[in-house]
């Protein structure tokens, strides 16, 4: 039987990954191109470089195609999985009026709040709408916007020549009927967020073909012209799909730039005024992912390497070990350190979440015995504990949420046996590593296979995941230690330290 292929594009915050797989889920070739650093504006905003988003995709795609020694005619399609929450302000010709505002920008719009009887989600959207933010800080630019696009809508335009996007990547950014997987029909919601329906991209369900790779895009990317561009979901939801988390009761942890814990459910829930959470649209139509985010997740590992392991990074480069070389060195050292890092604890709130305003990164228990490897391990432990902590309030809002039956882990951090074992021990359930750690790219390729007709639906496409997986079972001794550490220390840190955090903020604002 002729071997056929699909391509997955995963456009994240730190890099763009373009990977090719065959229909059995085997990795064929691929490339990752790092993005320029986020732009921190004088206005307090956090922005992305839109040109770099496109040129990174082009460079990664060209590199991948240069590695491919098969017949391009056997490439069935391209799946697109962009990161969620970054908004572009564009004209109809594809030009940008300003840099896209990144999801890590927590500014809110200076607008009148919605009435007290307004549903919580729409009330939240009004204050957090990027259109309303632009209108409040620059009315002139606001009046010039012809298209609001997610990163997916922008890249969809660049790849096909039309403003197309997956509906599953518009959550929180556009007026979306999350229960029905479509744009809102209620006119007042558009007024609420300051957008018009004609300013939105045409939206498609995951697995639907959105258009074809244009001749112009083919010249710039090296991708075959005319093959379908297929809707995935937002990056974390496509990652969950690519790891195999597709059933009610499954859970998925993504150890990427933004770490996430996602609960898969066949039941729709929405946030309340007391408890904020996203009702994210799965890569499986009419299924929902309830996600607990940590905006700076394994970004912290990159930060750690840059600040404390420059020598290991240089050594890894000299030995040709690739971008994970320094991390692998640190992991080997940290494997010899006991669970709990010999009394060293890190609360990694390097970007304070909404539920813990004023919080910041905190290291507790530092002693002369501690080394760089101790701090590295404590950081990994802190990330897992933070995801667990962040999930507690979410589960309280969903009393009927199915208990976790299967925990899947993907993202760059899942490469590490250390991270996998720590995850199993802290959550107290077996943790399964995906057959290929870049599950976002794999999930996008699986969507491409559906859109190209190789599989009928997402359930069939899971056949592409029949590669090798590895399950890490909790170590009873370590699990007991982590449970005590979590219950007696970690979950109590923020309430105790809040006055200190607030005082420090006041001191440094003087």
> How would you characterize the largest beta sheet?
7 strands, mixed
In the CATH scheme, the class of the largest domain would be: Alpha Beta
CATH architecture of the largest domain: 2-Layer Sandwich
Count of distinct strands: 24
Mean pLDDT across every amino acid position:
93
CATH topology of the largest domain: Nucleotidyltransferase, domain 5
Q: Give the DSSP E fraction (strand runs of 2 or more residues).
A: 15-25%
What sort of overall outline do the alpha carbons produce when their principal axes are compared? globular
CA distance, first residue to last residue: 71 Å
Strand order of the largest sheet: 18-19-17-16-22-23-24
Detail the poorly predicted runs: none
Helix content: 25-40%
Radius of gyration: 22 Å
- Going by CATH, the homologous superfamily of the largest domain would be ATPase, nucleotide binding domain
Q: Helices and strands: which structural class?
A: alpha+beta
Number of domains: 2
Helical run tally: 17
């Amino acid at each position: 039987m002729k071997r056929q292929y699909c391509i997955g594009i995963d456009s994240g915050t730190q890099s763009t990954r373009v990977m090719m797989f065959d229909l059995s889920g085997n990795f064929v070739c691929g490339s990752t191109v790092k993005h320029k650093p986020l732009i921190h504006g004088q206005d307090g905003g956090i922005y992305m470089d839109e040109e770099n988003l496109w040129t990174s995709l082009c460079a990664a795609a060209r590199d991948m195609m240069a590695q491919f020694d098969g017949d391009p005619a056997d490439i069935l399609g391209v799946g697109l999985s962009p990161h969620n929450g970054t908004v572009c302000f564009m004209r109809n010709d594809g030009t940008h009026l300003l840099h896209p505002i990144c999801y890590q920008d927590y500014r809110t719009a200076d607008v009148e709040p919605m009435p007290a009887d307004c549903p919580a989600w729409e009330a939240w959207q009004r204050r957090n709408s990027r259109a309303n933010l632009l209108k409040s800080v620059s009315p002139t630019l606001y009046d010039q916007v012809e298209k609001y696009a997610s990163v997916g809508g922008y890249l969809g335009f660049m790849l096909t020549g039309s403003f197309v996007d997956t509906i599953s990547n518009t959550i929180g950014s556009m007026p979306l009927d999350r229960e029905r997987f479509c744009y809102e029909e209620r006119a007042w919601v558009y007024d609420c967020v300051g957008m018009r329906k004609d300013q939105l991209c045409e939206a498609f369900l995951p697995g639907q073909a959105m258009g074809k790779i244009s001749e112009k895009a083919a010249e710039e990317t090296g991708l075959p012209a005319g093959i379908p561009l297929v809707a995935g979901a937002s990056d974390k939801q496509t990652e969950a799909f690519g790891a195999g988390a597709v059933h009610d009761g499954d859970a998925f942890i993504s150890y990427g730039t933004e770490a996430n814990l996602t609960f898969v459910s066949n039941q729709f829930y929405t946030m309340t005024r007391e408890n904020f959470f996203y009702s994210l649209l799965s890569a499986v139509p009419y299924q929902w992912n309830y996600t607990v985010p940590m905006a700076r997740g394994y970004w912290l590992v990159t930060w750690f390497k840059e600040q404390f392991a420059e020598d290991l990074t240089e050594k890894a480069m000299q030995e040709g070990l690739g971008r994970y070389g320094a991390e692998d060195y640190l992991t080997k050292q940290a494997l010899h350190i006991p669970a709990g890092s010999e009394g060293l604890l890190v609360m990694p709130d390097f970007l304070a979440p909404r539920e813990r305003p004023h919080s910041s990164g905190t290291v507790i228990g530092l002693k002369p015995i501690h080394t760089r490897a101790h701090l590295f391990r404590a950081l990994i432990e802190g990330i897992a504990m933070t995801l667990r902590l962040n999930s507690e309030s979410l589960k309280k809002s969903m009393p009927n949420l199915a208990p976790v039956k299967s925990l899947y882990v993907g993202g760059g951090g899942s490469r590490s046996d250390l991270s996998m074992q720590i995850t199993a021990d802290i959550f107290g359930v077996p943790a399964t590593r995906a057959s290929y750690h870049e599950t976002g790219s794999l999930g996008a390729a699986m969507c491409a296979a559906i859109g190209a007709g190789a599989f009928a639906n997402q359930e069939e496409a899971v056949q592409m995941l029949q590669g090798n997986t590895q399950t890490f079972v909790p170590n009873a001794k370590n699990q007991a230690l982590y449970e005590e550490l979590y219950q007696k220390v970690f979950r109590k840190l923020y309430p105790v330290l809040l006055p200190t955090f607030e005082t420090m903020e006041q001191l440094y604002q003087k």
